[in-house]
Amino acid sequence: MLEDCLEARFEFTGCKIALICEGQILTILRDDKETIPYPNMWDLPGGGREGNETPFECVAREVYEELNIQLSKDDVIWSGIYPSMLDGNKKSVFLVGQLTQEQFESIVFGDEGHSYKLVSLEEFLTSDRVIPQLQERVRDYVEENIDGPVLTTTSLDKDVKRKLENGQYSREEATAIYKDFLRMRERKEEAFFIAKLIVIFMIFFFPFMVAGGNFRRLDDVVLALVFLVLFVVLFIPTYLLVYYHKIGRYKRQLHKAMKKYYVDVLKECKED
């Protein structure tokens, strides 16, 4: 069980965590020093165990030191025990967790490592600059848990997952929550689209407003109207087509991933 792995006190050398944010994984570029293992390669947050730490205590401390992020146990969604990357005769712990966009934007990078960034799971798993052992561990998680597009859960899903595990939600209730979640994401996408449209419109017409002296001359007014018509006739329909195509694809991906997520949790509840 995940909880047992997080809280157990056993002999292990350290703990790494793959933090997934909006389908991307947070990576850290190691320092380019010959005195450290895997110099100038992309790594994951985490590090060596101190004292009698549990796996969660170890990784929470490391993540805070490296990124100034406070992890909670609810952020962790998967665990595994593997041979240590430095000593195959010893054990290390590997975790997968969720990272919100707000947490990513609030990162304060520590003094270990050169830089950090989000990359797609596909890029992480295929790059020759990522530590190979970490690629294998992330691949284990993906093969076990992901069917189709990789989408992470949000704080809403954490609450749903807990209530499903406790038997507080039926499958029908989970489906209703999923629909609410989808509508919420649609509204967010629509709001961003409208905001971008307004900004583009203002940028497009501002030079003409300045050059024309606030449209005091008839020629300036006609010119502005011509550009307005071109903008409406050409740009807006094109943008709308691209936008709704993107939303439609997102709906299909989200539906597939979320459906599997809820069904798997319900199966686990029944098995328990």
UniProtKB/TrEMBL annotation:
What the entry lists under Gene3D superfamilies is as follows: Nucleoside Triphosphate Pyrophosphohydrolase
Q: Which UniProt keywords apply?
A: Hydrolase, Membrane, Transmembrane, Transmembrane helix
Membrane spanning residue stretches = 191-210, 222-244
Q: Which GO terms describe its molecular function?
A: hydrolase activity
Which domain of life, per UniProt?
Bacteria
Nudix hydrolase domain residues: 8-147
Q: Which family does it belong to?
A: Belongs to the Nudix hydrolase family.
Protein name from the UniProt record: Hydrolase, NUDIX family
- Species of provenance: Streptococcus parasanguinis F0405
Classification of source organism: Bacteria, Bacillati, Bacillota, Bacilli, Lactobacillales
